[in-house]
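Shipment paperwork, digital attachment
Item: protein structure file
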Amino acid sequence: MSRIGERFAELHRMGRRGFIPFITAGDPNLDTTGRLLLKLADNGADLIELGVPFSDPVADGEVIQRASERALRNGASLRAILDCVARVRRDLSIPIILFSYFNPLLQFGEERLADEAAAAGVDGVLVTDLIPEEAQSWSARLRASELDPIFLVAPTTSDQRLSRIAQEARGFLYAVARAGVTGARAILSADAETLVQRVSTRSDLPVAVGFGLSSGEQIREVWRFADAAVIGSAIVREIENAGRATDLVERVGNFVRALRATAEGHSDREA
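Attachment content:
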């Protein structure tokens, strides 16, 4: 069983749901990214999604688009991102998932990426724009390197495609809470629960819900029907707002701890 599978199995044994924060690698720089990975783990993350910056992030809202632009300006290449993961892995026990568009991975080389990501300590790869009909060889390469191929499913995904995705996926399935791009929203779509129910009839994999979550209350609502909640844009905005502040990492850690505390129904002081 992969580290992702083991983490979800542990959560199940404890009767808990997962908390998965997302950050963009290299925003504001890779040294800070390494420290943020450790700080997220210390403040309640069960898994972490690490975004690979891309010059044309069509599935992302403005907050993550700006983060990608900042990271690329600061030289956040895929090679440098893997080196960053490798540096912190010995102090980090929770799973790390690369969240990427396919183009940067193709440029790096599919086989090389699978081998070097595994060597760095990455546990899974989610490709936002890879359709299941074209994913068989990619998924096989990842599995051969003991990496989990993770796929998005959306409210608009047909039942036939859901079944196809379930065959290719490992680790967990990422259910998009609503149609459209990433970005924090004040209201959680009712489509998310229906989608999780549809996925659960076709796969035994855990289901994480993301896209649009912005508060501890929304995380708590997702935990009512899904195995994990992913929160990204709200955290990335906190990084952006911190700018060049010397206490950026601490501020983000406090923000994430407060999100989790609210989701669990108690105050940050009690966490």
